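Our platform keeps sequence and structure together, in a single record for each protein. Such a record has a labelled line for the sequence and another for the backbone structure tokens. This encoding replaces a full spatial description with a residue-level series of whole-number codes. Below, we set out a record of this kind in full and without editing:
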Amino acid sequence: MKESYSLVRQSELLNRLVLDYKTAGDLGKVGEVWLDPHLHTVRGLTSQSGFWKAKARAFTWDSIKAIGEDSIMVISEGADPAPKKPETVKSVIGHELWTGSGSRAGHIVDCLIDSETGKVVYYLFRSDGWSGLMEGIYALQPSAISSIGNKRLIAEDEAVRQSEKYAEGLEEKLHAAQDFLKRDVEKTKEEWEVAQQKGRAIAEQVQEKTQVVTEQLKDKFVQAKSSEEAADLSDNGAESSPADEPKPSSV
């Protein structure tokens, strides 16, 4: 049983480091994945190394020990040094996807591979908007494919229509970003309006408080003024009392 980390896209295997499991030697990087679309399985791969990638090696699926996140482990000892590429191996990346009813549904952009068995779990295709399929990447089961040519794949209409979305398209991402920005602007506007209302309420409270303090100061000023005037009248009355007036002279 091969050691693996679940599903892996075919495109992720390209240029991945290839290591010899027995010697830990660097055997180059993956140059080609031998995928047989008729059997929906990986038959092997090639590695390239050296100056200008001049040194090439090939490994059958049986020689692959493990597919990891950073490298592919192979057992080169005892393996065929130059295995022949199977005639049924061909790349379907870029193939047009057509329905059995004669409509173009999109084109193949990648495939998902079970890294333990080498089986293709899904072919990934980009939708052209056929039959209401929105822009994006969808996962098509291999069992839905009825025929494969040099440039096209034909699949059952209902299977294509029922394909699950694997990734959003650029247009959907832009719409999602626009919706997010719109909601963010509306939220910011609401928060700004709330802040303004709070600011106005605080300003009104400050104004009312200022008026109250001003009125209190006015009252205190009036009271102080009244007290001062009363004191002045009292002093003037004391200065003009009869006891202090001069007596008239006798004749």
